[in-house]
UniProtKB/TrEMBL annotation:
Annotated region (Disordered), positions in chain: 51-71
Compositionally biased tracts (Basic and acidic residues): 51-64
Family of this protein: Belongs to the cytochrome P450 family.
Protein name: Cytochrome P450
Domain of life: Bacteria
Organism in which the protein naturally occurs: Streptomyces desertarenae
Length: 404
């Protein structure tokens, strides 16, 4: 596991684990030992089990495994108290606060802006007849979208693009580069929050500063950690939704035609089920983030000791034949689709409405404007990014009839 060949197609190995070792202890490339949970029913239960903590201090190796679980550089950048690292009651309080700023209404109002961004990016390569869809489309779209939403001024957004590039390029590689990018982003956000305090606007950062719960406000430090986690959690995931999703469509011409015909006829219903199916079939998040047993417990008949790390393999659970009919087939019309691509339980993806909006807009703009889009590489040659949690392509070369 976790080799290049595995990254190209991890699904046969996951099928084997589901069948023969559904709760399996393994040594990760970082040297940390962890339990992998691969069956859908176990995965769903595990994600919602309050006996599993998200706080890395509960890791039995917390003292000597320092920095091996979690976001590189998060200790030094003072990022420990973000949603994905904390448990109730702190989690409940912070999640409620950020939810008052990150509302479905704010997301829905953002749709025209996302479409404009997608169109502008497509304009950049439409006349050329070729493009790398990761670098020129999937990567910049979410970073500009979330910067806009947070209220990062336009003149600073290219800095974010560079920092995000460092984070993605170094994913799975040397941690130094990611750590540096994380620190710069974090310092920038702290400064932006400080500057905005005196001049609140309609953006998400102003919303975070205003957010209050029973008279209690986010501290500047909490607001900066929150803005950062929105960026961190909402960036590479969305790159991979657009990248993996487009790739799956290009490799399944019948399904792609179905979607393209529906869109051409003005029917956007299929687009909704399509985005959910693409998340299930080859989702952006391969493994859910770290969880640690706070007491001895049993998952799928397997005893887990206090302090032992548990990783739920979403990619394996979402192809479990005990839950999904014909799980290895991409079926954009699939209706019974309670996939775990956004997680489950109290840590269920906070950004799901934005992710869905970006996924729908990106795919419909791309297929609408470049109807003859095709893969310009041998699938066997495509490289996937390393790294434990996320699953995504490094590049996606395509060609099409140039559009003036
Ligand atoms: C949590 C997936 C996009 C913000 C999660 C989790 C998953 C996930 C699986 C739960 C992790 C766990 O329990 O270990 C995705 C996917 C996305 C996406 C597949 C894109 C297709 C976004 C976006 C944002 C975002 C756009 C925000 C702008 C968050 C936050 C959490 C989270 C803040 C933590 C919630 C909590 O701990 O309470 N996401 N996400 N995500 N996501 Fe997303």
């Amino acid at each position: 596991m976790f080799t290049h060949a595995f990254a190209a197609d991890p699904y046969p190995a996951y099928a084997w684990l589901r069948e023969h070792a559904p709760v399996h202890r393994t040594v990760l490339p970082s040297g940390v030992e962890a339990w992998l949970v691969t069956r859908y029913a176990d995965a769903r239960e595990t994600l919602a089990d309050p006996r599993l903590s998200k706080n890395p201090l509960h890791h039995s190796e917390a003292a000597h495994g320092k920095g091996k679980v979690g976001i590189p550089g998060e200790r030094s950048a003072n990022l420990m108290t973000h949603l994905l690292n904390i448990d109730p009651p702190d989690h409940t309080r912070l999640r409620r606060l950020v939810s008052t700023a990150f509302t479905p209404r704010r997301v829905a109002a953002f749709e025209p802006r996302v479409r404009e961004l997608a169109d502008r990016l497509i304009d950049g390569f439409a006349g050329r007849g070729r493009a790398d869809l990761i670098h020129e489309f999937a990567f910049p779209l979410p970073i500009y979208a979330i910067c806009d939403m947070l209220g990062v001024p336009a003149e600073d957004q290219d800095d974010f693009r560079d920092w995000a590039g460092m984070m993605i390029r170094h994913g799975g590689g040397p941690r130094g580069g990611v750590g540096r990018a994380v620190k710069r982003m974090r310092a920038y956000l702290a400064d932006l929050i400080h500057r905005k305090r005196g001049d609140l606007g309609d953006d998400l950062i102003s919303g975070l500063i205003r957010a209050s719960d029973h008279g209690e406000h986010l501290t500047e430090n909490e607001a900066a950690a929150m803005a950062f986690i929105l960026l961190f959690a909402g960036f590479e995931t969305t790159v991979n939704l657009i990248g993996n999703g487009t790739y799956a469509l290009l490799r399944n011409p019948g399904q792609r035609r179905l979607l393209q015909d529906a869109l051409a006829a003005g029917d956007t219903g299929l687009l909704r089920t399509a985005v959910e199916e693409l998340l299930r079939y080859d989702g952006p998040v391969e493994l859910a983030t770290w969880r640690f047993a706070t007491e001895p417990l049993t998952i799928g008949g397997q005893r887990i000791g206090t302090g032992e790390p548990v990783l739920v393999v979403l990619a394996a659970a979402d192809r479990d034949p005990d839950r999904f009919g014909d799980p290895d087939t991409l079926d954009l019309t699939r209706r019974d689709n309670p996939h775990l691509g956004y997680g489950h339980g109290i840590h269920y993806c906070l950004g799901a409405p934005l992710a869905r909006l970006e996924g729908r807009t990106a795919l419909s703009s791309l297929l609408g404007r470049l109807p003859d889009l095709r893969l310009a590489a041998d699938p066997a040659e495509l490289r996937w990014r390393g790294g434990l949690i996320m699953r995504g392509l490094r590049e996606l070369p395509v060609e099409f009839e140039p559009v003036p």
